[in-house]
Design a protein that fits this description.
It contains 4 helices and 10 strands. By secondary structure, the chain is an alpha+beta fold. It has a single domain (20-166), classed as OB fold (Dihydrolipoamide Acetyltransferase, E2P) (Beta Barrel). The strands form 3 sheets. Strands 3-4-5-8-7 form a 5-stranded mixed beta barrel. Strands 1-2 form a two-stranded antiparallel sheet. It has a two-stranded antiparallel sheet with strand order 6-10. Helix 3 (124-130) packs parallel to helix 4. The chain is globular and about 40 Å long. The termini are far apart.
């Protein structure tokens, strides 16, 4: 039994086992692939800190800037599941080099970059929704993955994942 277990571990290590948290490559509503490797048109940045579930601070060309994830919303500091969503985000990106991809808007009213975020084979915005730590929200005109995120949110809610059992996302408002 121990020999078999060791053999499995060695094979997994030799195969370069990639253990993404929660999400693997999936097909989006437009038939395109989401998840997986980051698009080639992205910008590399090093995550300096995780602010909360949907906001990070990154370093780009020696300058530190805030980044707000496009298409998702996580609980705020005074709301249920804030710590869990923030910790999940932290587990995905903290200290890593990520790829930032713009939808339509460059920044929000708080001068944060608005981006889809990828780390390796993980589409972070997607992972947050699929694992129940974020809700899908349409911030027009940035809508590339909204329908896909909304589908993932419904699945996470039906499965009682992440923050859904708290009822934090039950406001029936998916547009801001």
């Amino acid at each position: 039994m121990i020999k078999w277990f060791c053999a499995v571990i060695i094979v997994a290590l030799l195969a370069g086992c990639n253990l993404d948290v929660g999400v693997t490559t999936t097909t989006g509503t437009d038939g395109g692939t989401t998840g997986g490797s980051a698009p080639a048109n992205g910008e590399l940045a090093r995550v300096v800190s995780v602010v909360d579930g949907d906001t990070i601070r990154v370093e780009i060309n020696g300058q530190e800037v805030p980044v707000r994830y496009v298409g998702v919303n996580t609980p705020e500091r005074d709301e249920p599941c804030y710590t869990e969503a923030t910790n999940f985000n932290r587990s995905l990106v903290e200290g890593h080099v990520v790829t930032l991809v713009r939808d339509t808007s460059d920044t929000d009213r708080y001068d944060r970059l608005l981006r889809y975020v990828y780390y390796g084979n993980t589409f972070v915005n997607e992972a947050l929704v699929a694992d129940g730590y974020a809700e899908a929200v349409l911030y027009e005109p940035d809508d590339e993955y909204f329908d896909h995120f909304r589908t993932l949110e419904r699945q996470a809610a039906a499965s009682g994942l992440g923050c859904h059992p708290t009822g934090i996302f039950n406001d029936s408002n998916d547009r801001r």
